[in-house]
User: Fold MFS transporter from Pseudomonas arsenicoxydans.
Amino acid sequence: MNDLSASPATAALAPAEPSSWRDWLSVYSVALGAFAFVTTEYLPVGVLPQIANSLSITDGVAGLMVTVPGMVAAVSAPAIMLGAGRMDRRHLLLLLTLLLVASNVVSALAPSLPVMLLGRGLLGVALGGFWAVAIAAAGRLVSESKAAKATALIFAGITLATVFGVPFGTFVSTLFSWRISFAVTAGLALLALTAQWLTLPSLPSRGGLQVRALLAFLSRSNARRSMLLLGTVVAAHFTAYTYIAPFLGHDAGFSPGAITAILLGFGLVGMLANFAMAGSITTHLRASLGAVVLLMVIAQLVLPGLQGWGVTLAVLVWGVAYGAIPLGVSSWMQLTSPHLPEASSAMLVTTFQVAIASGSLFGGLMVDHAGVSSALWLGAGIGVLGLAVMLSFGLGKAPIAEALQR
Assistant:
C-alpha cells in the first residue's frame, strides 16, 4: 500500500537531537518490514493458479487468499489504533512482524484451504496493525528535520514491494514451488523482525486515535462519499488484477516465464508513473485521478479481445494507470477532513482493505461462473461507478479541500 501518509503530529514527536546511524538503521528496519508486509499481501496474485491446482480448488475460490486478509485488516486497523492504549510502539511493531512470520509459515505448510486462510487471516491482523502504527513511528525515530525523509523511506519499501512482490512470487514458484515462495517471504519477515529487535528504540505511546474523532469523520457526508470513491476505484483494480495470472495463462496463452516478465513490467511502469505524476496529482487532482481511472477502465475493457503483444501493451497501460491511483485517492482522502488526520488515516486503511477484499471476492465469483474475462469487465464497470462518484464532487477548479468543505 503506497497510499498511506504520516500524521501531521509526527514531526512534533521527533527527537530534537541530530539523528545517528543507529536511528537510520531503525528506519530501514521498519522499511524492510513494510517491504515484507506488502510482498506477503500481494504474493498469491502471481501464484494463484498453482495454489488452486495444489489445493484442488478453483481460481475464484483461491482468490479468498486476497479477500480474507483484506477483510481482517479493515477491522484490525482502527481496532488496534483504538485498543493499543499505552503499549510501547516498539513492542507492538515486533509483535505484528512476528505475526507476519507466522502467517507465511502457516501458508507455506498449508495442506488445505482452511489452513491457508488461517495463515492469511493472521496476515490481516498484522497488516492492519502495522499500517496503523508504522508510518507515525518512523517520524519518531529521527530528528524533526529528517522526519519526512524517514517516512519517504518507508514509502520506498512499500513501492518496491508493489513492484516486485507479485513477479517475485511467480519467479520463485516457477523455479521451485509456491510453497517455497511463502517460505522465502517468511525468511524475509524474520530478517525484518531481527533488524527491528536490534535497532528499534523504546517508543512510548503519546496518545492515539479517539472514538469521537472517528465518529466526527464518519458524520460528514463528504467524508463518506470520499470513502466510496476510494473504495470503488481500488475495488475496480483488484476485482480484475487478483486474477491477472489466470487470464495471462489460460486466456492469453502466456508461459509462466512470460507472465513473470509481464507482471514485473506492470510494477515497474507503475512505480515510474507514481513518481512522474506526483506533481500533477498535487496541482490537478480531479483531472489527473479521473484520467488514470479512465485509462484503467479502458485497459480492462479491451484486454479480453487482444492477443500477444496487444495483451502485454494493455497490461502495461493498466500498470501506468494504477501506479498513480493510490497516490491520487490517498491525497483525496487527506483533503476530505484535514482537521481529522488520524481518523482520515484510519479510514483510509480500512476502506482500502475493504476494497481489496470485496474486489477479489466478487471477481472470484465472476471467474468461477463466467470466466476470467468477466472479472475484467466487472472491474471496468466498478471503475465507471468510481468516475461517477468523482463527478458528483463537481468539475470546478477550486482545490478539493475547499470544494469538499462547502
Q: What stands out?
A: Residues 71 and 354 are 6 Å apart (CA to CA).
